[in-house]
Amino acid sequence: MRLISAQEVAKHNKRNDCWVIIHGKVYDLTNFLPEHPGGEKVILKQAGEDATQAFDPIHPPDIIQKYLPPEVCLGEIDPTTSVKTSKVETEKDKRRNLAIERKPALGEMLNLYDFEAVASQVLTPEAWAYYSSGADDEISLRENTDAFHRIWIRPRVMRNVKNVDMSTKILGYHSSFPLYISATALGKLGHPEGEVVLTRAAFKQNIIQMLPTLASCSLDEMVNAKGKDQVLFFQLYVNSDRNVTKKIVQAAEGKGCKALFITVDAPQLGRREKDMRVKFVDEPPDVHDEHNVNRNQGAARAISSFIDPGLNWADLEWFRSITSVPIVLKGIQTAEDAVLAAKYGCEGIVLSNHGGRQLDFARSGIEILPEVVEALKKEGLLNKIEIYVDGGVRRGTDIFKAIALGAKAVGIGRPTLYAMSSYGQAGVERAIQLLKDEFEMIMRLAGVNKLEDIRPEMVDIKNLSDHILVPKNYLFSDVYNKLIPTKSKL
Amino acid sequence: MRLISAQEVAKHNKRNDCWVIIHGKVYDLTNFLPEHPGGEKVILKQAGEDATQAFDPIHPPDIIQKYLPPEVCLGEIDPTTSVKTSKVETEKDKRRNLAIERKPALGEMLNLYDFEAVASQVLTPEAWAYYSSGADDEISLRENTDAFHRIWIRPRVMRNVKNVDMSTKILGYHSSFPLYISATALGKLGHPEGEVVLTRAAFKQNIIQMLPTLASCSLDEMVNAKGKDQVLFFQLYVNSDRNVTKKIVQAAEGKGCKALFITVDAPQLGRREKDMRVKFVDEPPDVHDEHNVNRNQGAARAISSFIDPGLNWADLEWFRSITSVPIVLKGIQTAEDAVLAAKYGCEGIVLSNHGGRQLDFARSGIEILPEVVEALKKEGLLNKIEIYVDGGVRRGTDIFKAIALGAKAVGIGRPTLYAMSSYGQAGVERAIQLLKDEFEMIMRLAGVNKLEDIRPEMVDIKNLSDHILVPKNYLFSDVYNKLIPTKSKL
Amino acid sequence: MRLISAQEVAKHNKRNDCWVIIHGKVYDLTNFLPEHPGGEKVILKQAGEDATQAFDPIHPPDIIQKYLPPEVCLGEIDPTTSVKTSKVETEKDKRRNLAIERKPALGEMLNLYDFEAVASQVLTPEAWAYYSSGADDEISLRENTDAFHRIWIRPRVMRNVKNVDMSTKILGYHSSFPLYISATALGKLGHPEGEVVLTRAAFKQNIIQMLPTLASCSLDEMVNAKGKDQVLFFQLYVNSDRNVTKKIVQAAEGKGCKALFITVDAPQLGRREKDMRVKFVDEPPDVHDEHNVNRNQGAARAISSFIDPGLNWADLEWFRSITSVPIVLKGIQTAEDAVLAAKYGCEGIVLSNHGGRQLDFARSGIEILPEVVEALKKEGLLNKIEIYVDGGVRRGTDIFKAIALGAKAVGIGRPTLYAMSSYGQAGVERAIQLLKDEFEMIMRLAGVNKLEDIRPEMVDIKNLSDHILVPKNYLFSDVYNKLIPTKSKL
Amino acid sequence: MRLISAQEVAKHNKRNDCWVIIHGKVYDLTNFLPEHPGGEKVILKQAGEDATQAFDPIHPPDIIQKYLPPEVCLGEIDPTTSVKTSKVETEKDKRRNLAIERKPALGEMLNLYDFEAVASQVLTPEAWAYYSSGADDEISLRENTDAFHRIWIRPRVMRNVKNVDMSTKILGYHSSFPLYISATALGKLGHPEGEVVLTRAAFKQNIIQMLPTLASCSLDEMVNAKGKDQVLFFQLYVNSDRNVTKKIVQAAEGKGCKALFITVDAPQLGRREKDMRVKFVDEPPDVHDEHNVNRNQGAARAISSFIDPGLNWADLEWFRSITSVPIVLKGIQTAEDAVLAAKYGCEGIVLSNHGGRQLDFARSGIEILPEVVEALKKEGLLNKIEIYVDGGVRRGTDIFKAIALGAKAVGIGRPTLYAMSSYGQAGVERAIQLLKDEFEMIMRLAGVNKLEDIRPEMVDIKNLSDHILVPKNYLFSDVYNKLIPTKSKL
Question: What residue ranges define each of the domains in chain D, with the CATH number in brackets?
């Protein structure tokens, strides 16, 4: 391969002549600029320079080979010439480095919120914004936690609870615990190794991981990280180009993924304003540019432009034709669609509002669960389909509530990212262990020995569907001027 | 015209001899003082001086010619003599100027609250108080936003939403979006050009504007600002003098306004204490004047003394006799009055509590909507009349909720004023564009292709009419002394 | 009368030899000490000194002559000897004096909360504590305001409201407004002239005042202050000694009081901890005195020890035998007791929890109103008895709500004390005028011309009796340690 | 006994050679280390040193003789050699000492929250954490207080309440007041004398005390502290070793305890994170020790490892065979289990969630009460069993509410600990006296003369079982980043 000097690359730094260095290779991205899902601006910022650090957390390593023609690769950077610009450490960087240095011991992490608190300190602002943000006013984001708090427990006493078994089967596959790691994007924003860290921790804890389409790691990397007999599922964003979709699905099945979770709540990706705002900190849009408004819309939009808004029920037949693994619809939000999914023969559904990241004021998965169970029962379909719930699970009691109301298992996403970002694989293992410890205790305190004993009458859901105390409207309250009485000024 | 020196004018500065300069002309307002709707005090403050700056935001330019006899105009100011007093810049002015200077870029405005936040910084205290204030404890003001938050969305998935059409017809006129700009008073408080800025932005966004009776611009100015085929409606405060009312209505129709929105919720203008208090900052009433209490009541009262409290259902016949455009009643607040409006043959109603500026504890328009739809349906009148809602609309989800519950369109008022005050026409355009972007996304995420697909069953209104979590009583909480336990003082 | 020197008085400063000077007279209170309703400690603090300043706000001037034997008066103080100790001005005094000096102009008072805010600054801590405190955790105190906020208004539009009449009759007596000044104790704590200030303001505003048993002024003083044809009612705490009670009732009737309001919610006076605590500021109990606990219980207990806990329904016959004016029971709190009152022939009842000062968690008068109206209607007694409501009335909307639900009038107590304490008679007049202005406006905005037009269907009471959002438990929240996640210490 | 020098003891300071000094005796605990319920770490911290100060608050004095073989005692410390290391006073210690020095006078304590506030200042952080903490997010802990606030009172008036009798019988034993002191562990953390302080105060106030299994005092000490005819009950944690259990029960009965309260809500002890975290302050776990996670779990876990998770209904027959006193189940949380308890012939049940220390989201005892009463009534069992309630009782109104809903008496735990920790026996007496004073007043204000008069219709429980306003999720809100609008930075 041709060796190219850093000085040579540096000359190609314009919109109509744009080279970048990624992992030691030099690419001419001039023609690709207008097609880049993340917009051309983000590439132009790196034009003529080494873009590896910006590229890595957002893209799997094999993406260029997969999607771009080979001729974009012009050669390799001449290692003797490469010039690394020394970055200055800002006040914010210093604070973050101090937080990393003074990180509490892993043993001090007593619950999932502790991990989130540490993650908020040790992550870059961009990563924290991408992971933690929700749609619009983040009402649904917070509602996901609040909804669990409207369910109370009716524990039974005086039962022998020496032995407690919390293992289960999900789509027929054994799990030590009715919980799986749900798919989340851009793992390398939180940990240099990305999603494989979760894969390894899932193996250690004997639970199932759902691999994401938008992983920072390649499918191969994730599948290669798995342990003996470890079960993996695959989450799919349906690409408008159905050939691409077919290739992805068949690769996943071929690599041994045991189920296909098709995301159905994201025909367009939600607006996450925290994620969008973090862009403006380094690079405020031109104040005078009032007519040519900046369209930079955060990490979420950057990675999602390919998602097919045309996906519909009729497509299920085609999916059946290209894969033989069970199909689960992720993002069902009404009893009506749950019944349709069962009628279309789906093996499972995930009741979810996408972690509050898509449609604000979408109800939480746990709230939807009773209406779904009732509708399926009424149609005689309850035993045809497994129901999972995600969104807001942070405590063993949350899992207990979901199981009591008819869920087969719950998914968690952000908590594992936060644990991974703070303490790597050991962090993820401990986070799951804490949930297991809590859940085991709760089973004892509630007087049950196995999951089947956790019955609907053990939870009080009188107010579950009451939307009276709604998460606070922070934007409104920030701009509202409070009334104050007139008094003497002292 | 006679030239008069500034020195000459300055001598006439008393209640029984009161001249002022407005736009270079000298007026003798001595006899008009007791009739001035805003009270004589506000004129006397300017007696013998140039009152243009105080006059402009409150009055359309043609008001003196229209309502006062020609002899009040004594002549023109001799331009060689005019003395401008140099105003000192206060700390508050400095802060405001700094806020203007450091205004975020328009591209950083991601939602309507951002515009409001900037407007609160760049507006004069008087303008901010007039625009943002509500009646009494501002319970209804805040309830307008809160009520939307008690409605949750039941989105459908797996529907082809590649194409989404959000256009509609309002009273038969095309609109790109089920939203119109509602009438608001005193636009020049926020922008030197006043309401015409909104007219131009409405044209760009292809939506309808409702012109206000109490505009700072004259009707001619607003109508002249309109684009090709642009549709305008006209909002009417009914004047006690029905000849004046007739003149106004016929002028509006003559200039091409396509509908008459008669305000029915303001037989007397509400008390807005923030607006009233702002007066006392510059000019505290005499502390010893306990029996002759200051009656200065803010901008709202100043501009409204002419409104006819005698307006009633029987007047509708007369309105039909003087105009042929559709008649819409703005400010309906019960099912009973909605049914009456339909029976009286009105073409539309606006469910509204006047932005929380009139009767505190009036319910929000969105809360009233279901009871109105049900009553009209019961009477077989639902297809006879269009229903609009205003008050508290800030997000695309709010519009979705109103449409789902049966509204034809929603109106926004303050948000366009805030956008205009912060960034002029481009601001207003962006504000509307943001709502369009949000709404289009929500239609996709909810699985609908056109407005008719947005059905009542897509929203959960179980708690819409629950008044349990009421907006905070700030005056009470400010004067209440919290209890604290006795402990050691350290 | 014998002249006694200050030096002589100063020698009698012990429990077994206790003289005090009041209004220039010297009294030997040694034998009265154990019987003093306020406890002997408070007298002993003044032993040998001039007690006038401490005596005045708590006692009517004629109380000693009325209740003590003439021989306790030993003579007059020799004016040439009297020694006034110069009091040092504390930081707190300075602050209070500054607040008085910088008091806003009366014209700046825009609502009743403004008066309360000023009163909290200009009153002595003791007076503020006595006036503002409530029972226990002050839940009922705050609930009184909150309950009104759970009622929303359904205003009607398009009605001719040029003319609005808000006059009414209470027990057959004309009032310009459906509001009376309720009885409150110790007026001189707030104003040197005491309750007569309220009497004069009530005359000016043409409303009725209810005179308190525990006034600082004597009955004669209050009655003498009344204007031509002014109507006064009399509030009665029933004394255990029925001869005393009879004397009081017949004096009130004799002086022209037109109705007897018997307080029935205070067989024992409530615990008001703010009032009790204020004692400890100047005079903390001995820290080592753990077994002989200080029983000083604030102003409330001091003035109430005579109230008869034996008062019961059978006593009504006796009251009828000693007076011919209408009898109203003040403090009814259930439908059951309202029905009993009507059956016993009472002319009226006041639904009240005594301003939240007696039983904490007693419901507010406004909440009780619908259940009372319904029960009386069911028994066919609704037209036999007038119903009044007090507690928490601060706005014209509150009055509107009470009238709509069936009240004949509402009472206010603290607001007039606050207005009196801040601005004297002019303040009280303005406070009432503000309520009248608000109420008149609300009648217009609600589309009514007279009180009879204010109908139950004009208010929405769906959640009135919901106790879900309860006033905050401040004592609890002050001692509760919030949970915080573990993170890096920076 | 052999005398051993401090220098000699000091050498045995390792895991495989571990001596400690307790009350002047030297013990070799090397073999006992792995069996210590509190974990070996806490002993190793004292290895080679005098452990008395750490031992005392956690263990009754006779525990070593009872449970360890005699040979662990090696001899006595040679008093001439003992070396006391002078402890340095930290900032925290200084603050605590200052708080103790400046403690308010006992007479200033006006309610139970005052005692709690003082206790939070004068207790060691470890004691405060152990006493005040609750399970998980402490939702149930706070709910216990909140639930009482959702009950409102319907007082009756015009009843002769001169005489009020608040005495009752509990399991046939006289009590001056429907309240008992419930069992709580580790009294010496709060007061050097421990639980006997409570015993003495209970005697003075003529109420019943329930002695705890996990007392710091021995059973003998507590029983010896009792006064003439004083009634004591005994609380039992069932030991896995039933011989131990039998010995304990028979000892309690033998010493005169009149009832056996078997704790049934603690098959495993709850997670109390405040209690767990306090450990890390002095001794943070090794930051690098990510795989060998610190298992130190606070005082709660340390003392509870022996509790039998196998306890079940069938065991009741065995309990009947070993004791003749009434059996009460403490920790019933559903109507179902209440009915079972009655059917199994238990004499009483305590509705309780263990002070919110066990299962978070368990409902409060007071909420469960109506469902239990209804179920027992339906089964005809209501008169077969007495019902008690504990959790959150802080005011006389709370007791009134419980009695009205059918409780025979209420228990309090933490409040007596706080009173004891702050002011010793006098504090406990005053705390109970304050409750009595409040309750007596409430009986008067509610119009009742004896406990039987307190009827269900005197309380309004419409919203008692509504879980809409749930205690705040502090961990969540601490890590959640609030949204703020973009504005000019000033």
Answer: 3-77 (3.10.120.10), 112-479 (3.20.20.70)
